[in-house]
């Protein structure tokens, strides 16, 4: 499904179709403008975050084959703002000649935790001990296999930002999880020190680059703060995390950005927790904090262009997510935030404010991590009304 020919006498501009219209697609716009890449979008709603800033937006069913085919017929390559597109549809598109990156062979590793856990374990990569079961009467044996109570239960598909995850200590606590009659992962409760993330980019020709490993601070299952590079992380552990992420990227044959969320364990080992095959929240700091942002490298990768440098441009960067609160008007805070800290970078996503929803982020770069944390957190808290001075 080749993209339409350019006007006579005009060179062909690369055309990238993005399925999904959230903030990740929205943040692809600046590098696309710089590289003269034509972005086209399939959005669920005309007022979705990316649809507000990408003129070539088609409103339709992001999981429907007809609309996916319509978008694919207009572009050189198809990529994603989210992974929740039926793999069967993507195989159909590929069979018809569409270029899909990352491909349908790779995406199940990000959409199905059971596929991911089994695939990485079979490849000899470190994951928590786990079992996949479908009924509560299988739970006791699974708990014994992973080391005993308490355990973490995860639905194999659909969970994110803390949804679809439970820590349970008894069978009675676990019974409601199985009411949906879907596969459930029973996982050991890992004794970890903190959560890390290793973001890498990989192109179809095999070139790959690794960004500095970051610390991801979580609250109620939602990432609230990212520090790059992870403070106090031993160089050997950092190198091991980058190497592990690159090995995962090669194992699943991903094209584009891959975020590997990791547990740093008390004994110094690393375990893979989650995968995301798209620009990721833990990589937002790269917009101001790295030589090449994750969004630019994702576009470069899916077009098989040489990848940009992932090197940091400052000693440290801190990104704090802006989570919706009780105040619907976030713009009223900009005058104060910008005047108080002219070096703070505020990104707002054009999303309706709802409590707990990611509606933006703030990044500050510099030398003093503690100072950066304070400044970024102050800006985010003022925007959401947690503080008023």
Describe the structure.
This protein is α+β, with helices and mostly antiparallel strands. The protein has three domains: 15-100, 3-Layer(aba) Sandwich (Rossmann fold), CATH 3.40.50; 129-188, ATP-grasp fold, A domain (Dna Ligase, domain 1, 2-Layer Sandwich), CATH 3.30.1490.20; 192-384, ATP-grasp fold, B domain (D-amino Acid Aminotransferase, Chain A, domain 1), CATH 3.30.470. It contains 13 helices and 17 strands. Strands 9, 10, 11, 12, 13, 14, 15, 16 and 17 form a nine-stranded antiparallel β-sheet that branches. A four-stranded parallel β-sheet has the order 3-2-1-4. A hairpin with a 4-residue loop joins strand 13 and strand 14. The radius of gyration is 21 Å and the shape is globular. The N and C termini lie far apart (55 Å). The model has no long low-confidence stretch (mean pLDDT 95).
Offer a quick outline of the entry.
The chain has 389 residues and is of the alpha+beta class. It is 27% helix and 26% strand. It folds into three domains: 15-100, Rossmann fold (3-Layer(aba) Sandwich), CATH 3.40.50.20; 129-188, ATP-grasp fold, A domain (Dna Ligase, domain 1, 2-Layer Sandwich); 192-384, 2-Layer Sandwich (D-amino Acid Aminotransferase, Chain A, domain 1).
């Amino acid at each position: 499904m080749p993209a339409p020919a350019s006007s006579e006498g005009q060179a062909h501009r690369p055309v990238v179709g993005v399925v999904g219209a959230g903030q990740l697609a929205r943040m692809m716009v600046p590098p696309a403008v710089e590289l003269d890449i034509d972005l086209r979008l399939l959005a669920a709603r005309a007022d979705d975050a990316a649809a507000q800033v990408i003129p070539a937006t088609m409103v339709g069913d992001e999981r429907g084959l007809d609309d996916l085919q319509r978008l694919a017929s207009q572009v050189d390559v198809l990529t994603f703002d989210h992974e929740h597109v039926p793999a069967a549809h993507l195989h159909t598109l590929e069979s018809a000649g569409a270029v899909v990156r990352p491909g349908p062979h790779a995406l199940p590793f990000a959409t199905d935790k059971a596929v991911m856990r089994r695939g990485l374990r079979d490849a000899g990569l470190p994951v928590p001990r786990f079992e996949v079961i479908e009924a509560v009467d299988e739970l006791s044996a699974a708990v014994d296999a992973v080391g005993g109570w308490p355990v973490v239960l995860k639905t194999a598909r659909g969970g994110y930002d803390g949804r679809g995850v439970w820590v349970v200590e008894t069978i009675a606590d676990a019974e409601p999880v199985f009411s949906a009659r879907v596969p459930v992962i029973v996982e050991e409760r890992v004794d970890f020190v903190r959560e890390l993330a290793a973001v890498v980019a990989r192109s179809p020709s095999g070139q790959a680059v690794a960004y500095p490993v970051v610390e991801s601070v979580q609250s109620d299952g939602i990432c609230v703060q990212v520090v790059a590079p992870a403070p106090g992380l031993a160089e050997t552990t950092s190198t091991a995390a980058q190497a592990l992420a690159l090995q995962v990227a090669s194992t699943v044959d991903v094209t584009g950005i891959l975020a590997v969320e990791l547990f740093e364990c008390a004994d110094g080992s690393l375990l893979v927790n989650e995968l995301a095959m798209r620009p990721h929240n833990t990589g937002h700091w790269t917009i101001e904090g790295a030589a090449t942002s994750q969004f630019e490298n994702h576009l470069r990768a899916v077009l098989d262009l040489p990848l940009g440098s992932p090197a940091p441009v400052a000693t440290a960067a801190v990104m704090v997510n802006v989570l919706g609160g009780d105040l619907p008007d976030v713009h009223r805070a900009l005058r104060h935030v910008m005047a108080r800290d002219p070096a703070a970078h505020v990104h707002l996503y054009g999303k309706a404010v709802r409590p707990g929803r990611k509606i933006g982020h703030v990044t500050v770069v510099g030398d003093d991590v503690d100072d950066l944390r304070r400044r970024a957190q102050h800006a985010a808290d003022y925007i959401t009304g947690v503080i008023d001075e």
